[in-house]
Write a structure and sequence with these properties.
Structural class: mainly alpha
Shape: globular
Strand content: under 5%
Number of strands: 0
Radius of gyration: 24 Å
């Protein structure tokens, strides 16, 4: 199988996954208890007014009719109209999306770099004191809930030792000075990014350590050692390449898992991103907005998985050819 055919096959699969997610999210959300028309109208509204709101937003139609309307609008790039913000869903999401991309991107990059370095350090001297300490640290980070870690970091590094801000995207008034604004956003980003990256950092560290220890016992590594290749070159030029393949795969998959962490992290730190927007949309039963957020999340996961598949196919031709 050639690379172009492999990429096309994975792309078609990604489109199918996004389509299925769109149908499932639309159906499940509308089967959930609660009436958005009642929330919009208020408790004192008359039944006629509530019914008028249902008719305005198409909530009085049968579920199959609503689904067909939604899919036809989706085919034209229309994600619907937010019941809460009275604006197109795509505009509401795009306002919050850059903040979430900044947070998730920073957390993932930090987790991958630091996690891989920790895994390499552990694999260099297995069963040593250094390896034991790093193993204990990674297992602790792996088991700590995101919301609890966020609260502890706020108490420790924002209240008891006031180094970082407790939350928000930036301080009021810094927008007028672009260099100061960038530094201020970065300063507010530190605690949320560290909190979000903790679990994934531990995962990458353990995967790297396990992959390197397995690779170091392979025949090609033993042969390289027998030829007199330095231990450093054996580790970085031979073993690490194969050990990174699971890291690439997991990184693509965890884009989806990180959404749950984003919701909790953004809530704890009052970070104005997609996660906090999702909580607001669910609270107000804003069906179009919730479905739009799920759809954007599914698209991002599909793209990240496709990118991971392409990278793995380039690094290891056996994957795309089906050999081995």
């Amino acid at each position: 199988m050639g690379l172009s055919h492999y990429i096309a096959k994975r792309a078609v699969f990604s489109v199918v996954v996004v389509f299925v997610v769109a149908i499932l999210s639309f159906t499940i959300i509308r089967l959930a208890p609660g009436d958005p028309a009642t929330l919009l109208a208020g408790e004192a509204a008359s039944p006629d007014y509530v019914q008028a709101i249902r008719a305005e937003y198409g909530l009085d139609q049968p579920l199959p009719v609503q689904l067909v309307t939604y899919l036809s609008d989706l085919a034209r790039g229309n994600l619907g109209y937010s019941l809460t913000f009275s604006r197109p869903v795509i505009n509401v999401i795009l306002e919050r999306l850059p903040q979430t991309i900044l947070l998730v991107g920073t957390a993932l990059c930090f987790a991958i770099v630091v996690g891989v370095l920790m895994g390499i350090t552990s694999a260099k001297n297995p069963n040593s004191l250094e390896d034991g300490i790093l193993t204990a640290v990674t297992l602790t980070l792996y088991s700590i809930p995101v919301f609890w870690l966020g609260l502890v970091m706020i108490m420790g590094l924002a209240l008891w030792i006031p180094i970082f801000p407790t939350g928000g995207l930036f301080d009021v008034g810094v927008q007028l000075n672009p260099p100061q604004f960038i530094l201020n956003v970065g300063w507010h980003l530190v605690l949320p990014a560290l909190t979000l990256s903790a679990f994934f950092l531990a995962t990458y560290a353990r995967l790297t350590r396990a992959g390197l220890l397995e690779a170091m016992g392979m025949n090609y590594v033993v042969q390289a050692r027998a030829k007199g290749v330095r231990q450093r070159d054996v580790l970085y030029h031979h073993a690490l390449k194969n050990a990174l393949l699971p890291i690439i795969t997991v990184a693509g998959i965890q884009i989806g898992l990180i959404v749950g962490g984003v919701v909790l992290t953004e809530s704890v730190y009052s970070w104005p991103g997609i996660g906090s927007l999702l909580i607001m949309a669910v609270s107000y039963r804003d069906y179009p907005l919730v479905t739009g957020i799920f759809l954007i999340t599914a698209i991002s996961v599909a793209i990240s998985n496709l990118a991971a598949d392409i990278i793995i196919g380039l690094v290891d031709p056996r994957i795309r050819t089906g050999a081995g």
